[in-house]
Amino acid sequence: MVVPFETTVNEQGQTVHKPLFQAAPSAPSLEEAFNLCGPEATVCFLIHNGTEGGRDIVVDRRAILESGTKLAEIINGFPSGRKVVLRYDRIDIFHELLTFIERKFIRFHDTEQCQQIFQVAARYDCQELKEQCIKFLDNNLNLDNVLEIFTLMHSHSNGTKVPSFKSQGCCRRARREFTCTDEYISALLENCLQFIDTHAKEILSSNEMLQLSYSQLVMILTRDTLQVGSEMNVIKVLEEWSRIACQERNLELTDDNRRKMLGALCYAPRYLTMPTQSLDIVFSRVELLDENEKNLVIEVMNNRRNSSITSDQLKMIDSFRRSRTKRPSMPIHLSDRTHPKNYSRKMRKHPEGTNSKGSCAMYCLSTLICCFD
């Protein structure tokens, strides 16, 4: 007799459905698994601030210990079952740090959040997260945030040099090998300066430029690759920045006090590259140079010889004569934005922004390589 599928005949000769097979589970239940995971397998951070109160964040203890961060030093030897109490202003940002350490993944929403995450990563020495932040910031650099990111990188930079190219030749074949996070910070700092070079006219006229510190201002205005268009843009920044500096220190707004505030920045403009009319306007508006220096510039401008000129004055005149480059330098490849393919062949042939002359054969070879790059 043929019986329907998934049925059978019982002892009474009736056709009934087969009983479903129920295998015993091999894995422990959720409650049993939780009991097997002792309190030493996790660690609870109690993060609090002055406004939001406290918040418990439970993460894997082993992930923290193997992270090599300062958090690993804090919980190493810490009694199990006790909460690690830490204070941080942004609890959500600290949560992102712990989540990254545990899962090795993070998703940034914007550059403002990324900068805050970078700061907490720097505070607790999470190198891998800092590198992720640097790449995101480099990829999203724009006119609105470049000075803010530049200030952040400048405050965390320790002067580490960016690694040079491993091999010589075309930008496509040459590679930089980063060995530490400090090199990434220096690279992003240099990319910020390169971005400022490229958009110097817009950035130098912004109010954020006047909020920079003296050392940051020196880094920007003394660059040979700064595409200012006219040195008047540099002089306007110095004029406004010195005025604000005198007001903050309750100093009288005189030329002497302005020169004291500016120091060596008085010699940042390339005076001898300016037209004579523009130079007359500068000297009539604000005296960044003293009388002797101003007279020396006028004599050189009028091709008058001065036999009593000193070696220091010669160096000063040479710096006033040195023109800024026609093109900015190439950025360092940290993200899709700074990929060499996004920049012109001229910039790729002269990555430092200079018009250095080499042999004819090497010039032709570099041109040919860039054509096929």
From TrEMBL:
Gene Ontology cellular component list = cytosol
Q: What is this protein called?
A: BACK domain-containing protein
Task: Point to the regions of Basic residues compositional bias.
Answer: 340-349
Which superkingdom is the protein from? Eukaryota
BACK domain boundaries: 180-284
Pfam families named in the record: BACK
**Annotated organism of origin:** Nyssomyia neivai
Q: Biological process GO terms, please?
A: neurogenesis
* Chain segments carrying region Disordered: 322-353
Q: Which InterPro entries match?
A: BACK, SKP1/BTB/POZ_sf
Lineage of the source organism? Eukaryota, Metazoa, Ecdysozoa, Arthropoda, Hexapoda
Which CDD domains does the entry link to? BACK
Regions crossing the membrane: none
